[in-house]
């Protein structure tokens, strides 16, 4: 089992990122908070972090995972996490000076962009630890790419599609997302709602 642990850690990483993004959707839809462009970039970076783990899972379709498979997958996750951490830090610095209340309502005392920085730091630590222990996690024995793997990748695909649809609804037929969005432009562009 411990020789297949790296394979199952990749599944957990994807599900953890998907749960964070579904929580962001909960705040977006439940609290009626339209995400800003920096928030959307952070979501995209989180999806890219999950794609590193998805790469590892997809490589297991051949039956075994190699050290280079883990290195490539977690390397992708590290690059995405560094980019996401830079974006999160930029947004934190925009809102750090008092009396700026920040963008959106805090969740458990922190704004979503601060939580995003925490997520990116956790991805960096997780990826680094997985790379350190790759020799213990790699196996030459066949790994079964089964319904669990397909389900996890399906959840990731659904979250990716939901993010694309969210951006499209928010942007509508315009080229640029507004800096401080207050509505979903697509519904106004289609005439479903009247502009104030």
TrEMBL record:
InterPro entries noted in UniProt: DiS_bond_form_DsbB/BdbC (IPR003752), DsbB-like_sf (IPR023380)
Chief localisation class: membrane
Alphabetical GO biological process terms: protein folding
Ranges annotated as spanning the membrane: 7-28, 40-58, 70-93, 113-135, 147-168
Signal peptide (residue range): none
One example GO MF annotation: protein-disulfide reductase activity
Location(s) in or outside the cell: Membrane
GO terms under cellular component: membrane
Keyword Transmembrane helix in annotation: yes
Zinc is among the record's keywords: no
Alphabetical UniProt keywords: Membrane, Transmembrane, Transmembrane helix
Pfam families: DsbB (PF02600)
Name assigned to this protein: Disulfide bond formation protein B
Source species of the chain: Gimesia algae
Membrane topology type: Multi-pass membrane protein
